[in-house]
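Duplicate of #3305? Posting structure anyway:
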């Protein structure tokens, strides 16, 4: 009988697995309960009107609307009366009225009218349509899907709290720098990319050609640092035109990414503190979207200056590429969604350059464990009114 050796053949390999705690976001899961302890954006505020919208977040299907008073409402889709969907409901001054028998619910689920019942429903106050708090904030509609008694303050970032005379806040729905608005993969493999600055040097530069700028294509010297209990940032130092180009990217647990402009060296406005943030929002376990807020300068025409930041591929946008060009010049979408709907953690071989990824996963586990044990997420109340100081930005320093 010959000795068995490790040939590296694919045949007979163990069944791969993923780390459920890190990736699952449904009700009752460790990750899902952590997400539900934070306000999450569900839509751009200007796009929420009196026509009901179907939204899906953290594996839950809901109906979003704005009543005649301008208040956003987020409710369970099945009417509390006979179960038809409120997607076909009629929005009125005080709430949303079911199309089937006309029961009217306000933005907090109170039943205000039952037109087929005597006196508009003598016991209507006993009925409550399941609902979630929803508010306008930073030009987005944020919702809180967690336990009512643990509702935290709205998130506040110091870079978004003050505006100059020639600045405005702008919003977008975006899951990354390239690709569709909803990415067909788990949120974590998309989000932890922010703490992996080495991929910029390879994926966005040496392998696919310079997708950002020549300054960004320089190999960085990288370190990672904690931001108290609530997040972390990476520091990337590059030599640039006799100076030190320091780039800092930042994440706040569980899902806020703060990435400065990728146009450093090409756009004079790209240096300085970061001007915006993106909430990377799980739609469910295998699809992800995002909502961004950006502080934009006003141009001579009085309109916000468009953001320069999306990767380009030999002068083309991601949407203009052929399948062959996507293979030849992959970007974030290809690398992240290319891991599959949920990446298989048992098959990873993490190395020293992945330290930022392992640190962030450790941060997530600490926050999940705190919630599981009945506490608030660490650092959930930061500064006055939960205002967080942002470290992220592009900076030019003296080499010393």
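Output from current build:
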């Amino acid at each position: 009988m010959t000795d068995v050796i490790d040939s590296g053949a694919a045949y007979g390999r163990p069944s791969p697995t993923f780390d459920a705690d890190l990736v699952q976001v449904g009700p009752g899961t460790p990750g899902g309960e952590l997400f539900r302890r934070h306000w999450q954006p569900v839509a751009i505020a200007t796009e929420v009107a009196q026509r009901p919208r179907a939204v899906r977040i953290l594996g839950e299907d809901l109906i979003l609307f704005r009543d005649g008073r301008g208040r956003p409402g987020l409710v369970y889709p099945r009417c509390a009366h006979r179960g038809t969907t409120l997607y076909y409901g009629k929005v009125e001054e005080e709430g949303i009225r079911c199309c089937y028998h006309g029961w009217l619910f306000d933005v907090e689920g109170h039943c205000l009218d039952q037109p087929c019942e005597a006196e508009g429903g003598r016991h209507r106050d006993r009925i409550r349509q399941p609902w979630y708090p929803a508010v306008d904030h930073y030009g987005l509609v944020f919702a809180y899907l967690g336990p009512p008694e643990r509702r935290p303050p709205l998130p506040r970032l110091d870079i978004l709290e003050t505006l100059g005379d020639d600045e405005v806040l702008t919003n977008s729905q975006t899951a990354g720098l390239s690709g569709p608005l909803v990415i067909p993969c788990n949120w974590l493999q998309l989000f932890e990319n922010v703490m992996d600055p080495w991929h910029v040097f390879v994926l966005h530069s040496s392998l696919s050609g310079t997708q950002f700028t020549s300054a960004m294509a320089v190999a960085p010297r990288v370190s990672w640092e904690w931001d108290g209990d609530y997040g972390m940032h990476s520091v990337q130092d590059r030599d640039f035109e006799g100076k030190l180009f320091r780039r800092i990217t930042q994440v706040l647990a569980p899902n806020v990414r703060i990435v400065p402009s990728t146009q450093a060296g090409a756009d004079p406005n790209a240096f300085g503190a970061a001007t915006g943030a993106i909430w990377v929002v799980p739609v469910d376990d295998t699809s992800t979207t995002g909502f961004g807020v950006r502080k934009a300068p006003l141009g001579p025409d009085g309109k916000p200056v468009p953001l320069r930041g999306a990767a380009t591929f030999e002068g083309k946008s991601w949407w203009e590429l052929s399948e062959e060009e996507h293979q030849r010049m992959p970007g974030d979408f290809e690398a992240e969604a290319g891991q599959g709907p949920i990446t298989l953690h048992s098959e990873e071989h993490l190395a020293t350059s992945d330290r930022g990824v392992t640190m962030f996963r450790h941060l997530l586990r600490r926050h999940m464990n705190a919630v599981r044990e009945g506490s608030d997420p660490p650092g959930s109340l930061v500064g006055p009114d939960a205002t967080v100081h942002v470290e992220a930005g592009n900076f030019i320093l003296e080499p010393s």
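Confirmed duplicate; merging threads. The two ends are 65 Å apart (CA to CA). The helical segments are 20-23, 30-35, 158-161, 187-191, 198-207, 323-328, 332-337, 355-372.
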